[in-house]
Amino acid sequence: MTQIFFIEDDEALAEGISFALEREGYQISCFSTCRAGREAIAERQPDLVLLDWNLPDGDGLALCREIAGTAGVPVLMITARDMEIDQVMCLESGADDYIAKPFSLAVLKARIAALLRRRGGQDSSGWLISGDIRLQEKEMKAYLKDRELDLSLTEFKLLKYFLENKNQVLLKEQILARVWDSGGSFVEENTLMVNIRRLRTKVEEDASHPRYIKTVHGMGYLWEDRPAEQVDVH
Asked: What's in the keyword line of the UniProt record (predicted)?
């Protein structure tokens, strides 16, 4: 799991961003001072550091220079300063990117993903997430909130295919060809319906009124995702 250190003395801000990023599958550790962040990085190197400029025991820019010079970990600076000279100072101090408050969580998530891609080809935490549903392909596990789902292999593959194609109408023929090893050529449509019904009982709070798996009559099915989270952080 991708590890992110968040060095920020604003407790409410740190808690809000941590909650949002953890829902994306990242593992977040928060530190409120330069000293605490420095000691944590020396002990265990993260995949990314989110770093506030103004900290109670020192200058975030100085810590950024230390991290860039020794740890080699990507740093995303977060600050209320939004002048061009401030951005230049951040980048010259070794920051890989810079984001000024207020900002949307969607933009922050996109910049984190971009930095992780540049670092080593990793653009996500390995989780597929939609609402309260999370799926980890490598570990072959899926969760509804914090409860692990008991899925058959076919149900797992079906859920994975839906999460990879959120908000898209998937034709029955597409699903059969993708999920069943035979390519769907010898699988009856009723088999798909049965597996959809079983999956709904496991991922939906009320399978008779599905929130996620929608039937598109005459065509197939659609996984309805929540709208992208757009929250201004001050």
From this structure: DNA-binding, Phosphoprotein, Transcription, Transcription regulation, Two-component regulatory system
- Contact at 8 Å (CB) between 40 and 5? yes
CA-nearest of 225, 157, 148 to 192 is 157
- Show the 3-state SS of 170-204: EEHHHHHHHHCCCCCCCCCHHHHHHHHHHHHHHHC
**In this structure, CATH architecture of domain 3-120:** 3-Layer(aba) Sandwich (3.40)
**Residue ranges with strand state E in 72-226:** 75-79, 97-100, 103-104, 127-130, 133-136, 141-144, 147-148, 169-171, 213-216, 220-223
Nearest CA to 225 out of 212, 208, 215 is that of 212
The tokens for 131 are 């609402």
Please report, for the chain, the start and end positions of each structural domain, with discontinuous segments joined by +: 3-120, 132-223
pLDDT in tens, 15-24: 999 999 988 8
Tokens of 183: 């390519």
C-alpha to C-alpha distance for 153 and 226, rounded to whole angstroms: 25
> According to CATH, what is the number of the domain 132-223?
1.10.10.10
Residue type, 159: L
The Cα 210–Cα 202 span in angstroms is 11
pLDDT(229) > 70? no
* pLDDT value of position 44: 87
Q: Which tens digit of pLDDT belongs to each residue from 79-117?
A: 888 788 888 888 888 888 889 888 888 889 888 887 877
